[in-house]
Amino acid sequence: MSVVDELSSILAGASRAVFFGGAGVSTESGIPDFRSATGLYTTHAGGAYPPEYMLSHSCWRDRPEDFYEFYRATMLHPEARPNAAHTALARLEAAGRLAAVVTQNIDGLHQMAGSRTVHEVHGSVLRNHCTGCGRSYPVEAIADSTGVPRCDDCGGIIKPEVVLYEEGLDMDVMAAAVEAIGRADVLIVGGTSLNVYPAAGLLDYFRGEPLVLVNKSATPADRRADLVVHDSIGAVLGAATDEALGEA
């Protein structure tokens, strides 16, 4: 039996599966990851400051013009569209097989594909707010601005609702993710190296089986998994979903 057949059989029997994904899900939509040879940390190394600092709370606070210039250039991808993995997950949710998506990504592509229950543990570039009066702003308020984006009402700085380095995660979002994973009958982990904590620690809340890992390279959790696939998340999940839903 092929790995696609194995995964399709797992999906066909699921009623409250959860998908936990990382940057590798969005690379197939043209959004660079962080740690690979072509990732952000490699391609933007050698600047005046490392990328980790440029995306930190300290940089946002102390060097806001530099922060927003770097943020617009690296974090905003308005041309990106959902790929086969995103659409497969939306179809599985609509079919009653998938209960939730837990994602480390901030691009909003899961919702664009049609997923409704999405826990974004690192926030979203699509949500922004004024740090002065709290007014909400769409992504265009930052994407289409220059310098430091300011609120039309009070002149406060418009800040993206993403988790920067040195900032804590949203505990309400984490609690919802923990609850979803704890209740899951299947956990599918895809497109993540599982090296970023505390998000990677979410696997420890899964009490069911099977655990499925789909990633192009090995992860620290491979030995714990019931099914490991080192391949494209879009190709594998798309084909397995087709089979599971009888659309192959």
Automatic annotation (TrEMBL):
<dbReference type="InterPro" id="IPR029035">
    <property type="entry name" value="DHS-like_NAD/FAD-binding_dom"/>
</dbReference>
<feature type="binding site">
    <location>
        <position position="122"/>
    </location>
    <ligand>
        <name>NAD(+)</name>
    </ligand>
</feature>
<feature type="binding site">
    <location>
        <position position="35"/>
    </location>
    <ligand>
        <name>NAD(+)</name>
    </ligand>
</feature>
<feature type="binding site">
    <location>
        <position position="104"/>
    </location>
    <ligand>
        <name>NAD(+)</name>
    </ligand>
</feature>
<feature type="domain" description="Deacetylase sirtuin-type">
    <location>
        <begin position="1"/>
        <end position="248"/>
    </location>
</feature>
<feature type="binding site">
    <location>
        <position position="107"/>
    </location>
    <ligand>
        <name>nicotinamide</name>
    </ligand>
</feature>
<dbReference type="InterPro" id="IPR026590">
    <property type="entry name" value="Ssirtuin_cat_dom"/>
</dbReference>
<keyword id="KW-0808">Transferase</keyword>
<dbReference type="InterPro" id="IPR003000">
    <property type="entry name" value="Sirtuin"/>
</dbReference>
<dbReference type="GO" id="GO:0005737">
    <property type="term" value="C:cytoplasm"/>
</dbReference>
<feature type="binding site">
    <location>
        <position position="106"/>
    </location>
    <ligand>
        <name>NAD(+)</name>
    </ligand>
</feature>
<feature type="binding site">
    <location>
        <position position="154"/>
    </location>
    <ligand>
        <name>Zn(2+)</name>
    </ligand>
</feature>
<dbReference type="GO" id="GO:0017136">
    <property type="term" value="F:histone deacetylase activity, NAD-dependent"/>
</dbReference>
<feature type="binding site">
    <location>
        <position position="106"/>
    </location>
    <ligand>
        <name>nicotinamide</name>
    </ligand>
</feature>
<feature type="binding site">
    <location>
        <position position="215"/>
    </location>
    <ligand>
        <name>NAD(+)</name>
    </ligand>
</feature>
<feature type="binding site">
    <location>
        <position position="23"/>
    </location>
    <ligand>
        <name>NAD(+)</name>
    </ligand>
</feature>
<feature type="binding site">
    <location>
        <position position="193"/>
    </location>
    <ligand>
        <name>NAD(+)</name>
    </ligand>
</feature>
<dbReference type="GO" id="GO:0008270">
    <property type="term" value="F:zinc ion binding"/>
</dbReference>
<feature type="binding site">
    <location>
        <position position="192"/>
    </location>
    <ligand>
        <name>NAD(+)</name>
    </ligand>
</feature>
<comment type="similarity">
    <text>Belongs to the sirtuin family. Class U subfamily.</text>
</comment>
<keyword id="KW-0520">NAD</keyword>
<keyword id="KW-0479">Metal-binding</keyword>
<feature type="binding site">
    <location>
        <position position="130"/>
    </location>
    <ligand>
        <name>Zn(2+)</name>
    </ligand>
</feature>
<feature type="active site" description="Proton acceptor">
    <location>
        <position position="122"/>
    </location>
</feature>
<feature type="binding site">
    <location>
        <position position="107"/>
    </location>
    <ligand>
        <name>NAD(+)</name>
    </ligand>
</feature>
<dbReference type="InterPro" id="IPR026591">
    <property type="entry name" value="Sirtuin_cat_small_dom_sf"/>
</dbReference>
<protein>
    <recommendedName>
        <fullName>NAD-dependent protein deacetylase</fullName>
        <ecNumber>2.3.1.286</ecNumber>
    </recommendedName>
</protein>
<keyword id="KW-0862">Zinc</keyword>
<keyword id="KW-0963">Cytoplasm</keyword>
<feature type="binding site">
    <location>
        <position position="34"/>
    </location>
    <ligand>
        <name>NAD(+)</name>
    </ligand>
</feature>
<feature type="binding site">
    <location>
        <position position="151"/>
    </location>
    <ligand>
        <name>Zn(2+)</name>
    </ligand>
</feature>
<feature type="binding site">
    <location>
        <position position="34"/>
    </location>
    <ligand>
        <name>nicotinamide</name>
    </ligand>
</feature>
<dbReference type="Pfam" id="PF02146">
    <property type="entry name" value="SIR2"/>
</dbReference>
<dbReference type="InterPro" id="IPR028628">
    <property type="entry name" value="Sirtuin_class_U"/>
</dbReference>
<feature type="binding site">
    <location>
        <position position="27"/>
    </location>
    <ligand>
        <name>NAD(+)</name>
    </ligand>
</feature>
<dbReference type="GO" id="GO:0070403">
    <property type="term" value="F:NAD+ binding"/>
</dbReference>
<feature type="binding site">
    <location>
        <position position="233"/>
    </location>
    <ligand>
        <name>NAD(+)</name>
    </ligand>
</feature>
<feature type="binding site">
    <location>
        <position position="133"/>
    </location>
    <ligand>
        <name>Zn(2+)</name>
    </ligand>
</feature>
<comment type="function">
    <text>NAD-dependent protein deacetylase which modulates the activities of several enzymes which are inactive in their acetylated form.</text>
</comment>
<dbReference type="InterPro" id="IPR050134">
    <property type="entry name" value="NAD-dep_sirtuin_deacylases"/>
</dbReference>
